[in-house]
Amino acid sequence: MTELMAARMQMGSSLAFHIIFAVFGIGMPLLLLIAEGLWMRTGNDAYRQLARTWSKAFAVTFAIGAVSGTMLAFMLGLLWPRFMEFAGGIIGMPFSLEGFAFFIEAIFLALYLYGWDRLSRRAHFACVIPLALSGFLGTFFIISANSWMQTPAGFTLNEAGRITDVDPIAAMFNPSFFPHYFHMLFAALVCVGFAVAAVYAAGMLKGRRDEYHRKGLAIGLVVAAVFMPIQIFTGQQMAVQVTQNQPLKLAAMEGLFKTTKSAPLTLFGIPNVDTMETEGGIEIPYLLSILAYNNPDATVQGMEAFPRENWPNPVIVHLAYDTMITLGSALMLPGLFALFAWRRRPQWLQHRLFLLGMVATGPAAFVVLEAGWITTESGRQPWAIYNILKVEDSVTSATGILPWFITFSVVYVLLSVFGVLILLRMAERRRQRLVAAEVAVVSGDD
Amino acid sequence: MTTEPTLVGLAVFSLLVGLSAYAVFAGADFGGGVWDLFASGPRRNQQRSAIARAIGPVWEVNHVWIIFVVVVLFTAFPAAFAALSIGLFGPLSLILLGIVLRGASFVFRAHAEDQPKLQRWFGIGFSVSSLITPFALGASAGAIAEGALKPDGLGGWYPVAWSDFFQPFPIVAGCLAVSICSFLAATFLTVETKGALRDDFRRRALIAGGGVALFGALALPLSTRFAIPLSHELLEGRALPLVVSGGVLALVAFVVTLTRAYAVARYVAVAFVLAVLWGWGVAQWPYAVTPYLTYQDAASSNAMLRVFLVVLAAGAVILLPALYILFHVFKGGHPDAGSHGPDA
Fold first, then answer.
1. Region of residue B11 (left: phi > 0; alpha: psi -120 to 50; beta: else)
2. CB A194 within 8 A of CB A291
3. Which DSSP string corresponds to A103-144?
4. Residue B341: pLDDT above 60?
5. Any CB–CB contact under 8 A between A398 and chain B?
6. Residues near A120 by Cβ (< 8 Å), separated by ≥ 6?
7. What pLDDT is recorded for position A119?
8. Nearest alpha carbon to residue A137 among A87, A175, A99, A83
9. Residue B47 burial (CB count, 10 A)
10. What residue in A sits closest to B60 (Cα-Cα)?
11. Nearest to B61 among A90, A110, A117 (CB)
12. pLDDT tens digits for A231-242?
């Protein structure tokens, strides 16, 4: 394996791992806000229990997110020093701002977690607000740096290839920033909503149909269902943005080799770079032209219009994209179904099939998340900074990356296994406490 | 186009402020891990839980300072960040591994109360990585001071060989870093404990203080042989006042710990660490990578640094009150400070 390949695999696996925990860091505060807010309003203890349980689980996911995020900050330099040397002086600022956002999030999380018994109710609740805001802001800054890699701005290259006229603000608010930001932000909220709903649906399937589980499922599902339609809209904005800024990426996403008027949307199928055809896909007439240009007669550029050495791998990009849009669209269903059932057939919300479906949405949402991330980042290849600096020119000259890649992969596996184990034990302990409390009440020795 | 020296100076100042905060706060957390590893005697379990209580609410915030340092470095001095990343690829990867294992094991251990066996393993992960990480950080700083990180003449850098870290000066620098962390931790813990447990940590503060004195005394003469530019500034140049005050402060810290003036000892220990760190920072100036790359040559553009420094100042205005609240609630002599775990 080449050093470049090892570096790409280490970066890719680290990001794929981190994004899961980062998403909880963005979404969990909102759920805590809702649960604790409802408790303060209604006094219903089930809400307080939910907030308390979530805060403990969040402590674990947040810590893993913090350490894996630190790894990424270092790895940007360790694996891609040429990229950082180039980009640091242009887009480093949002990273620093993210540092501040992360500080605020860590501070208020500590106050929140350890403050249940030390702060007044109001002060404790007040901690969730900066917690949630700093999560949203952190996303804002990280996605700013990430979108800059897709649509670099805020500098000029002189004839000698040196950077001049740096404008950090223009770099931050680069052309694809807002679509990327909102698409990521709502993805996080949807993922966390479904993940939480899935956990309580699983509990209900095991017969734990108490108020605590029903309310846990409801909060998760409502959050996911509210943001899911908005997410489809931001996805559409992303398609428009990619068409304008990265037409080659769009062509790879759609598996479109030849420039086509009234282009159909091809679902699935395997793009074959030798025959320049996407084989075995399902074509939906005109849809791509409509999606990209809002016009069924529009001409969409195929990959053939661009030099071959700049092509991303269309197999990965196309399949990841298809996974995102099909499975992602399917995630509209639970919300629509629940809305209907809530009005007309409330008993359906307790039905086994519905609960099974809800359990599936948790992992499905994260598959969509990873697929979306793979689409946007693999679609950026072979560039680290789009049309400016290639990935192969960014890699470190240090050798021996492979053993570290293996080491860190083992660490990620261990963190995942133990993380899940600890969260499961946490839930188990809560149940044991409840049973013990009931026994105490029944036998009268409170 | 050269960057304005004032802006460069202010950026280096921010970098050192971040490093100081990391050294004092996270350094003490690492030191706590070291004392977890060396917990001994009849109260070994109480020692461990006192350490866990002290670190619990604050370690993540303290840890963020290293992220702050990294982002300031790559925003203000991208060329230096690239050089360090290439040259110190191995040790930085090791440090990273230590940071991850330390944080994750600590949290896992805190939440694995009903699985003693697993909990012991997490404890080992936590304490061993708390020892290795500061050692590797200190050794890396030592290797840079020796001039082990060299340019390849093609605009890049040679990776520093592992054997360059296993030299007298980097090893002593690594040991000094570990002693300083342990000293800080033990001193802080005397303030947060009572009775016999407090005496345990007092003894540990004195032992670590001895280690600091030993490795400090070894580092200075070794630097005259292996890190000549650094030693010149340390012993005869502009860093001399800081070195002298560092020595005096170390002595004072030792004496006040001996006389059980714990509240004072805490602040003297912090002042001592700051003297060491700024002494090193001032001695290494103007080099980011001694003696090949100056901060000036590694700096970003004027436009970037100007906006960046304004952003840092604005960020500090938000950050400092938040930090104050955190430490006020968890370290500010609350009647039962440190007596609650998360959601106990």
1. alpha
2. no
3. HHHHHHHHHHHHTTTTS-HHHHHHHHHHHHHHHHHHHHHHHH
4. no
5. yes
6. none
7. 86
8. A99
9. 22
10. A106
11. A110
12. 999 999 999 999
The Cα B169–Cα B280 span in angstroms is 14
Interface touch B96/A68, C-beta < 8 Å: no
Min Cα separation B253/chain A (Å): 30
* Pairing outcome for strands A270-272 and A277-279: antiparallel
> Could you tell me which residues come within 8 angstroms of residue B41 by beta carbon, excluding any fewer than 6 positions away?
B47, B200
Q: Do A96 and B68 touch (CB under 8 A)?
A: yes
Closest residue of chain B to A165, computed from CA coordinates: B303
Scanning the structure block, which residue is given the tokens 């994209």? A321
Are A104 and B319 inside 8 Å of each other by CB?
Answer: yes
Give the burial class of A334: count Cβ atoms within 10 A of its Cβ; 0-12 exposed, 13-18 middle, 19 or more buried.
Answer: buried
- A418 touching B, CB under 8 A? yes
* Contact list, B106 vs chain A (CB under 8 Å): 63
Domain that holds residue A68: 3-240+380-443
Instruction: Examine residue A330 and state whether it is found in any structural domain, yes or no.
Output: no
Work out the number of other CB atoms within 10 angstroms of the CB of residue A1.
Answer: 9
pLDDT digits (tens, 9 = 90+) for B202-230: 999 999 999 999 999 999 889 888 888 88
Q: How far is B82 from chain A (nearest CA, A)?
A: 5
Say what angle helices B44-55 and B168-192 make with each other, to 10 degrees: 90
Sequence-distant (6+) residues with CB within 8 A of B17 are: none
**Alpha-carbon gap, residue A193 to A30, rounded angstroms:** 10
Distance CA A149, CA A142 (A): 11
- Rounded Cα distance between B235 and B114, Å, is 54
Residues B130-159: tens digit of each pLDDT: 999 999 999 999 998 888 899 888 888 898
Q: Is residue A341 part of a domain?
A: no
* CB pairs A-B closer than 8 Å: 229
A191 in any annotated domain:
yes
How is residue A393 annotated by DSSP?
G
Prediction ipTM score: 0.86
Closest residue in B to A91 (Cα) is: B75
Q: Do A70 and B63 touch (CB under 8 A)?
A: yes
> Does residue B290 have a pLDDT over 90?
no
Q: Which residues contact B112 (CB under 8 A, 6 or more apart)?
A: A422, A425, B118, B119, B122
Q: Is A269 left (phi over 0), alpha (psi -120 to 50) or beta?
A: left
Q: Check: CB of residue A291 under 8 Å from CB of residue A267.
A: no
User: Beta strand pairing status for A265-267 and A260-261?
Assistant: unpaired
Residue A366 covered by a domain: no
Question: Is B1 within 8 Å of A164 when comparing Cβ atoms?
Answer: yes
Confidence of residue B344 (pLDDT cuts 50, 70, 90): very low
Helix axes A211-245, A352-378, angle to 10 degrees: 30
Cβ of B293 under 8 Å from any chain A Cβ? no
User: Which residues of chain B from 226 to 285 reach within 8 Å of chain A, CB to CB?
Assistant: none
Number of domain units in chain A: 1
Please check whether residue B82 touches A, CB under 8 A.
yes
Please identify which residue in the block is written with the tokens 């005259």: B224
Q: With an 8 Å Cβ cutoff, is A397 touching chain B? A: yes
